[in-house]
Amino acid sequence: MHASAVRETPAGRSLALETSGGATPDGEAANPRFFDGFLTAPAAAATALLAVADVAASRYYRPRPSAFLDPVVTAGGDRLRLESFSACCGVHARLDVLAAGLDGDDVGHGTTNVDINTPLRLALARIGGLDPLHLRVGPEGLEATTFDGRFVEKKVPLPERWLRGFAEAQVIAAGLVPRAEIPAAEAAALLRSLPRPTQRSGAHTTRWVVPSGRTLRPTTRPAPGAVCLPGCERLLSLRHVLRHASTVRVYAPRPERSHDERGRAHQDRTAPVAWEATLPGMRLTLLLSPHASRGFSGEGGVLDDLADGPAERDTERVAELLAWEPTIDVADLSAQSGLGPERVRAALTVLGTSGQIGYDLAEEAYYHRHLPYIAGAAEARNPRLRGAKALVSQGLVRVDGALAWVGKDEHAYPVRIEDGERMSCTCPWWAKYRGGRGPCKHVLATRSVLNEKKESAR
Fold first, then answer.
1. Region annotation Disordered: residue ranges (predicted)?
2. What is the reported pLDDT for 140?
3. Cα–Cα distances in Å, from 92 out to 53, 66, 99, 248?
């Protein structure tokens, strides 16, 4: 094995990102080669790569030194995607190097980890001007090391929180819409006005911005049409990248989701947000969790689909149809599988629990990423789902019209069922989050029982 490095060649500087085993369409490979060629915007690419690595090395909530973690790289036939999570799992960074940003041989297909080590970081920081930059992911002819098909565990351990984070991040991203597009210079000025995190404060500051033409007007209080910047200090990883960017697009929930019927913003609710910087032939996206203290791994957005019996059964059918394509066409999958679009989306959510699905905001489409985990293991990674299934198996869910009692004796909680779908509970979890971090185990258990009744009635 060799370490990743920037090397001097007669043609210029060459960036060799060494892989450590990965999945390809032909099966597992010890050191797959995904791309060999030049980056068309080397200085911008180096800065963006450093931003992805900086996120992986940062802990924004309760800051303390963190070990460097290797970003996950996915080759999709016409692009490369590099992804990382912060150590607190509250920030997801993704760099998409598109076809226009690559000048070389064909891009392969597959997923692996790449080594972004300290010498490489220092070398990337020195790249600038017109220096050519050659990218080699998994060099041909590298001595292969035998793996047993589980490359993540064997070579670059993927943290459990990252796996759950991938699942939740794609659900959250799919619920965001474009809210503003501004010149990079305007975005840079806004970032300069944000507070800087300290060892004592961390990223606790919440700000709002109101889209106004081609700019964002900052405010310390929510207002109609405002976009929340939760733990806004977490956006500072973009500040060096913006000098290479042309525009910045901001994604957030639809306005009606964060305001009441009179148009007033909820004073006590924060919301996720994504900032996407458009670079030459590339896009860099930072997705922030709803609060700095909340990592994506605990958001619970996948739980409703996991409790849905049909979604679990549909997953295998949809998984067989997935190909190593740059984007996943839900309508095409629906036609091939014979399932409705909503059932396909639910199956993709279940597949996301094994890290196989991501969501691209710019293209409003899912994409395929392969990690050596199976969707059926999702229960072990979700305590609320385990608790719900235990309640169902013990017969502790009693549905009576629009009300269900879940639990035993004095520990039973009433669950209200509205319109046969929307539910609310009276347990401490629901009282604290009001569904803001996904359903509690009592709601999940009730939904599971109702789904079983619907299936048996067909």
1. 1-26
2. 32
3. 11, 16, 23, 17
Query: What is d(CA 336, CA 86) in angstroms, rounded to the nearest whole number?
Result: 37
Domain span including residue 423: 383-458
DSSP structural state of residue 221 = S
Among 323, 317, 377, 367, CA closest to 150: 377
CA atoms within 13 A on the CB side of 451: 18
Among 159, 165, 164, CA closest to 90:
165
d(CA 197, CA 176): 26
Answer yes or no: is 415 within a domain. yes
Last residue of a domain, one of 103, 136, 156: 156
pLDDT at res. 147: 24
Residue 452, CA distances (Å) to 204, 343, 448, 457 in order: 43, 16, 6, 9
- Residue 346 and residue 318: Cα distance in Å, rounded? 10
Q: What is the pLDDT of residue 152?
A: 29
Residues of the chain with pLDDT under 70: 1-33, 63-69, 114-115, 129-133, 137-159, 197-203, 256-268, 307-310, 312, 323-324, 372-381, 420, 457-458
Structural domains counted in the chain? 2
Nearest to 197 by CA among 233, 244, 250, 161: 233
Closest of 293, 229, 233 to residue 61, by C-alpha = 293
- 3-class secondary-structure state, position 166: helix
Residue 165 forms part of a structural domain: no
CATH number of the domain that residue 96 is part of: 3.10.150
DSSP conformation letters of 358-375: EEETTTTEEEE---S--G
pLDDT, tens digit, for every residue of 88-113?
889 999 999 999 998 877 777 777 77
In degrees rounded to 5, what are phi and psi of residue 317?
Answer: -65, -45
